[in-house]
Structures are given as structure tokens and as C-alpha cells.
Write a structure and sequence with these properties.
Immunoglobulin-like, Ferric Hydroxamate Uptake Protein, Chain A, domain 1, 27 strands, 5 helices, mainly beta, 4 domains, about 5% helix
């Protein structure tokens, strides 16, 4: 699990978007551009294009077609939109299903039919496999894909290698917590990538890896994308990949869902050295549960989204919580497994006064989280066997053995967002609150306490 998660927001983050007559493209948003013509291919001047969000049913942008028949609507959150195009002496054209991806400008041309404006022509947008408006490369992954693809743990970073030009080491599914992932984009160093969440730079400029970035669970993400090359300065300040994340927002209709996934060790094979030393396979029990809800707020106005996810697990196969063939120093132990200065001095040919009492305490460290066992492995614990002839055994230097301990895992994550438009959709207020707090206790590795809000 991530050892540290940076602070994303100290409370409710309010972003005011004042919509004026001209727009500039921003990070983690998209746009729609196109040309309006009549059935003969002639340009239509003076048309109006209303861009309506399919999720909220509200107008996100209203733009006028220029003298060249073109229009552009920018700063659109990723999602599906409907275009309503109207012009004098033409029927209204309604184009549904126009998809907008992160950092991409979708091209959607519209053809109008001569007739009364009260008449409507409905058209379904055809998805395009290429982006004719930009040379940027990268793969956008939407919410459906994020929720459909199986993941060993709720970590969207494991899906980064789906983009072309992105490579990384295979995921270690034994890792306690949500695991770690680092990728190389087009041969660049793994530390040469940048990350932004809802347009906010969340890079850790100290470690410069994905180990310490916030990890919203996949059920909260509307879309993610790794821009691999030819992206502009709004998306990243490094030469590798630019990872963009956008969380979900409220919808015009009430929606809710609950989920739960369980992972156990019934079909797991034991490791070779564990079998050889008579050690049972490590435990692995993981439960990921939670739910999401969204909808409008009557009377007050606006739309809300809420998600909670909990992780409860007991992992005994984490590489930092077990070992298959370590070299363990033979320690003279008492019947209860403890070590004392007198026996240590005799073992190493020293006097008891030469044995550091702090070292003795470290050797005798125990932890109830891991069954009360000693944190420094010794004979009689785990797969290290027992000493049948203590006198003969003390003449040996070290032994091969295997051992493991269960690492308890607890994580709670909350995401809340609120959106509302003002002044006939000319102004908009958006707030997002994200809280993630968890812990992973690794008996032979680094215990972590993570908090992100």
C-alpha cells in the first residue's frame, strides 16, 4: 500500500468557473468542435449550438457559429453530450451521444435541413477512432471500463499499461494493501511522469513516483487517461506520461449502487520452500465493499455525488510479511523463546556486560497484531523448526527457514462532490471533498499509516 498520500484538499474545495465569450482549454477537460452546413454543403452562418450534458440535462455551453460556419465549445467535463443546433429557416438538429474525453476535442459536424425551426431532426453521433483535432497520443479509459476490468486490489494504477507506449513491471498481487505500480512511458524514466486529479497537480516532487499520489477507488472515477506524447503544457511539466484523473459528479436522476468483492486463499498454492520446511501457506482474506449514490437537490438546486469504500484484509503472503528462504541467525533462546544477555554472551564468546541491553530488547520484540510472535525470527517460530540438540545447535552459524505472519489491513475512503450553475448557466460552482485513511501493519517490513484528504 502507498506509504504516504499527499494532501489533496484540506476540506471543501470550491472552483468558480466564470464563463465568458471566449474560452481556453484547461487540464482534465475536453471540447467539441465542428462545422454547420446545409444539405448542399454550403456553410450556415448565424446558427446557435447548445451543448447539453446527458448526465445532468443542463446546458454546459451555448456558442454561436462563426462566419466560416465553425463552432467550438471548450472546458467541457468528460462525458456524453447532446448538441442542439438551430438557425433561421432550418429545422433544429439534435445530435445525441457526442462523447468528450479528457484533454481531447471531439469533431462533430452538423448538417441542417431546410424547414421550419419548430421541426426537429434527431441524429445519433458516430464515434470516431481518431482525433482529427489534435496530434496528442494516449488512451482514455471510461468509468465502464474501470468498473468492468478485474483488479486484484482497488487500484486504478494497474490499468495504466493499457495505453500504447506504456510499460511497467507485472503487478505483485501478493502485496498487502492496494499495491504499488510504476510505469515507463516511451522509454522515459518512471520518475518522469506527472499526475493531476480534477485539474489539480498532485505530484510528489520529493519522490516523483506514483507511490505517494492520491488513489481514488475505481468506482469514483469518471475517466482516466495517460497522454503519452505531444500534449500541451496544461497537462504536465515533465517529458514522460501525463496521467489525468476526473472523478464523478452528480446526475439529473437518482442513482445508487452497492458492491462487495471477496478474495480468499482456498485455491492458492503454497510456496516451494514453505512446503519443504513444513510451513502452511500464508493466509489471504480480502474484502472490498462500498457504494455510490448521486442525484439532484430539489429546491436548492445542483447535483451531488457520494462514494464510500472500505477495505478489510488479512494478508500473510506479502513479500514484507513473509520469506521463503531467509538466513536466520541462530539465537540461544529460553523455553518461552526469549533471549537474555547471559546466553547471548556465551554464544558469541563475550561477557554479559558487553551485550547492549537495547539490542536484547529489540531481539525480544513481540506484537499482538501478529499473534504475539517475536518480530525477529528464531527457531520454534513459523517454519524455522525446533532445536532438538541445543548444545550442538549452538555451534552452527545460521539456518535456512521460512516464516510468515498475517498483516492486518484497514482502509476507509470517502468522496463527496457538489455542482451547481448560476445566472442561466453562465457561472458554475464545483466542490469536491476526498478523504482516504488507512493502515497496513507489516510484521517484517514497514508499517504504514496513510491519510489523504
Amino acid at each position: 500500500m502507498r506509504s504516504v498520500l499527499r494532501l489533496l484538499a484540506s476540506g471543501l474545495v470550491l472552483s468558480f468557473l466564470f464563463v465568458a465569450s471566449a474560452y481556453s482549454q484547461g487540464a482534465q477537460t475536453g471540447g467539441i468542435t465542428g462545422v454547420v452546413t446545409d444539405q448542399g454543403g454550403a456553410l450556415v452562418k448565424g446558427a446557435t449550438v447548445d451543448v447539453i450534458s446527458a448526465s445532468t440535462g443542463r446546458s454546459e455551453r451555448t456558442v454561436n457559429v462563426g462566419d466560416d460556419g465553425s463552432f467550438t465549445a471548450t472546458l467541457l467535463p468528460p462525458g456524453s453530450y447532446t448538441l442542439e443546433v438551430s438557425a433561421p429557416n432550418f429545422k433544429k438538429a439534435v445530435v445525441a451521444g457526442v462523447k468528450v474525453n479528457i484533454t481531447e476535442t471531439t469533431r462533430q459536424d452538423v448538417s441542417l435541413e431546410v424547414g421550419k425551426i419548430q421541426e426537429t431532426v434527431n441524429v445519433e453521433a458516430a464515434p470516431s477512432l481518431i482525433n482529427p483535432s489534435s496530434a496528442q497520443t494516449g488512451q482514455a479509459i471510461d468509468a465502464q471500463t474501470l468498473n468492468t476490468l478485474p483488479l486484484a486490489s482497488p487500484n486504478f494504477l494497474f490499468l495504466l499499461s493499457l495505453s500504447s507506449g506504456v510499460s511497467g513491471e507485472p503487478t505483485d498481487v501478493r502485496t498487502a494493501g492496494r499495491g504499488t505500480a510504476d510505469v515507463s512511458v516511451n522509454g522515459q524514466r518512471t520518475s518522469n511522469n506527472s499526475v493531476s486529479l480534477n485539474g489539480i497537480n498532485v505530484n510528489d516532487f520529493n519522490l516523483a513516483h506514483f507511490d505517494t499520489v492520491p488513489l481514488p477507488n475505481p468506482d469514483t472515477l469518471q475517466e482516466m487517461k495517460v497522454a503519452t506524447s505531444l500534449y500541451d503544457a496544461t497537462q504536465g511539466s515533465k517529458g514522460g506520461g501525463a496521467l489525468g484523473l476526473v472523478t464523478k459528479t452528480g446526475t439529473k436522476d437518482f442513482h445508487w449502487d452497492l458492491y462487495w468483492s471477496h478474495r480468499n486463499d482456498y485455491l492458492n498454492a503454497n510456496e516451494f520452500f514453505f512446503n519443504k520446511n513444513g510451513t502452511k501457506r500464508g493466509r489471504l482474506l480480502q474484502n472490498v465493499f462500498g457504494g455510490s449514490a448521486s442525484g439532484p437537490i430539489p429546491k436548492v438546486g445542483g447535483f451531488w455525488f457520494f462514494n464510500y469504500q472500505g477495505v478489510r484484509a488479512r494478508n500473510g503472503i506479502d513479500p514484507n510479511g513473509s520469506s521463503t528462504s531467509p538466513i536466520v541467525q541462530l539465537l540461544p533462546v529460553s523455553a518461552d523463546g526469549s533471549v537474555n544477555a547471559t546466553d547471548l554472551a556465551a554464544r558469541f564468546g563475550l561477557t554479559a556486560a558487553q551485550i547492549d541491553p537495547v539490542a536484547v530488547k529489540i531481539l525480544n520484540l513481540q506484537d499482538n497484531r501478529f499473534g504475539g510472535q517475536y518480530l525477529v525470527p528464531r527457531f520454534g517460530q513459523g517454519g524455522c523448526g525446533s532445536i532438538s540438540n541445543p548444545t550442538a545447535a549452538l555451534s552452527l552459524q545460521n539456518f535456512n527457514c521460512s516464516f510468515s505472519a498475517v498483516a492486518p489491513i484497514l482502509d476507509n475512503q470517502y468522496t463527496i462532490s457538489y455542482d451547481r450553475s448560476f445566472r442561466d448557466d453562465k457561472d458554475k460552482i464545483t466542490g469536491t471533498w476526498f478523504w482516504d485513511e488507512g493502515s497496513v501493519d507489516k510484521p517484517y517490513g514497514t508499517d504504514t499509516r496513510t491519510r489523504c484528504r
